[in-house]
Design a protein that fits this description.
Blueprint: H1 2-7, H2 10-25, H3 29-39, H4 45-52, H5 56-78
Helix pairs in contact: 2-5, 3-5, 4-5
């Protein structure tokens, strides 16, 4: 609940946005595309795998890893 209250603060949202953009800027292009297509475009994992010509398992694994990294960074912003 406390984290949700912090998200109401514009400066916290700005720090989170900067953190997300920074993380994305350091990812390889394919991983960045996976994240953007999944979280911003709403593509299903199967469509991402098809677009990148890789397996669904690889997309799942990469997204879990990227989400964990992002969660860690966001957690430090909310702390």
């Amino acid at each position: 609940m406390f984290a949700a209250q912090k998200l109401m603060q514009p400066e916290v949202r700005e720090k989170m946005t900067i953190s997300i953009l920074d993380m994305l800027s350091h990812l390889p292009e394919a991983e960045k595309n996976m994240f953007i297509w999944k979280h911003y475009c709403g593509w299903p994992v199967e469509k991402i795998a098809s677009a990148l010509k890789c397996s669904v398992a690889e997309v799942d694994r990469t997204l879990r890893s990227t989400n964990a990294l992002l969660s860690s960074q966001v957690g430090s912003v909310l702390a």
